Amino acid sequence: MNLQSRFRLYALTFFLVITYKVLAQGWVTDEATKDDSGGIFSGILGLVLLLGFIWLIGHIMDNISENRNIREKRKSIHENKPSQPQNVEQPKVLQNKPEDVFSQMLRYNGTECLTDKDLSTPTPLPSNQDLSFIKKEIGNCAITEILQSDKENAITDWWKDSHKDHWIREHGEADYSSDGKKLLFYWNKSEGYTIKEGVEILCDESLSNITSDDKDIVLPPTVKILGNRLYYYNWREFFVIPQSIEIITGNPYTTCKGKIKCLSPHFVYDNDILYDRDKKKIICSMWDYCEDDDKKQIDPHVMMIGRYAFYSIILARHTPLTIPSSVLYIGDSAFEKTGFDTRLSNGTIEIGDSAFAESHIHNFVLPLSVSKIGNNVFANCEFLEKISISPNIEVLSKGTFLNCKKLNNVYIPKGVKIIKNNCFKGCLSLNEVWLPNSLEMVEANAFSGCPLAVVVLSRSTVVEKEAFPNTCIVKYRD
């Protein structure tokens, strides 16, 4: 009861007590004196009693009306509350009432399951210039795929080439392409080596596994392109990028712990990160384990994180590393096998293959800006428990959540049309999945190995053979 109601109740009680005493006194006086004053007093006090009674009835009706309004307001809030989840933990499922879960799954139409409140804020679309930059950089990275096929062809050519021009044995053994422009692989790790003149491209991993600083590799001034994982598992303390280098197709220094001396005008090395000339693209990170890893952040002006840029980096962080909203594209395996948690801001458009595979992410949000993800993006993330998927993603690619053993209660938002094969294969904790009406196809083995008891689909959804476990019951919405 509020203060106003209490005051009204106290006032009523006071008036009733006074009225009683005056009324009783008036009747006594009337009997003793035989005067008519008692009748006057009785009339006045009767009027007061009537007014008090009317006020009391009004007070009771006010309380009843107030309680009714409160109940109606609560009912309205409950009825207007969205039946679909607004984050990865909604709707709350009562384990002891499976019929309620089934009813919710029947009603579910795929509302977004985003947890970050800021994701509702519209993100400015990237300019055509920005998109052209991203397209160009992706094209440069694609060179490596061509190099790999050239490597196979060159090795085949080697057996047919009686002169063996591509096999040099002056200071070790190395394979070159038939045209002499590509170093395919350096085999002899026991001594230094000078790459022959005319070589322009160093292919993927061609200088890997050199575990000593004194086994120096001399690059000729003709080299222009460095391949991905070039010095994979190389234990050198310093790496020099010659002035002649124009293109780097990935991260040449994955799993390396040394420092970089950059002589090329096409790249910038700053705070243990190698950028392109304009610092719009992160090529690689040479971050190492230290006590103040929480201070290490990604520059808020970076637009692209190159493939393998942070591959296998382990940091002692107490807070997740935030990828800023300026980043439009994340390359293949950019954060694969990283030993820290990561957060993605609203702004990223595309994520490449295996970008976060085998990393230490726990709860992850694919924001509204994301429209395309590659294969195996979160494969083998053993700590991933919650995922919120952008409603603008139409295809969940092959192996997206492959073997994420702690992932549970996944809500596929409205907008997703295809779930590719092996997408959720091996998710041993995934006992509930909510599928939208927009879903057109679930491919084979998409949910193989998941402990699903029942799934509810639209009747228009095509389900390929063995898409769900044999023990799973498939129901359809009316």
Can you describe this structure in just a few lines?
It contains 5 helices and 29 strands. With 478 residues, the chain is α/β, with parallel strands linked by helices.
Task: Describe the fold and architecture.
It contains five helices and 29 strands. Helix 1 runs antiparallel to helix 2. It is an alpha/beta fold and 478 residues long. The strands form nine sheets. Strands 11-12-13-14-16-18-20 form a seven-stranded mixed β-sheet, with no helix packed on it. A six-stranded mixed β-sheet has the order 1-2-3-5-7-9. Strands 22-24-26-28 form a four-stranded parallel β-sheet, with no helix packed on it. The protein folds into three domains: 79 residues; 172 residues, Ribonuclease Inhibitor (Leucine-rich repeat, LRR (right-handed beta-alpha superhelix)); 159 residues, no CATH class.
Give the topology, please:
Elements (H helix, E strand, L loop, with lengths): L2 H31 L3 H44 L17 H10 L20 H14 L1 H18 L6 E2 L5 E3 L5 E5 L6 E2 L6 E2 L14 E2 L6 E2 L11 E4 L5 E2 L10 E4 L4 E4 L2 E4 L4 E5 L18 E2 L15 E3 L5 E2 L11 E3 L5 E2 L11 E3 L6 E2 L12 E3 L6 E2 L13 E2 L6 E2 L13 E2 L6 E2 L11 E4 L4 E2 L9 E4 L2
Parallel strand pairs: 3-5, 4-6, 5-7, 7-9, 8-10, 13-14, 14-16, 15-17, 16-18, 18-20, 19-21, 22-24, 23-25, 24-26, 26-28, 27-29
Antiparallel strand pairs: 1-2, 2-3, 11-12, 12-13
Helix pairs in contact: 1-2
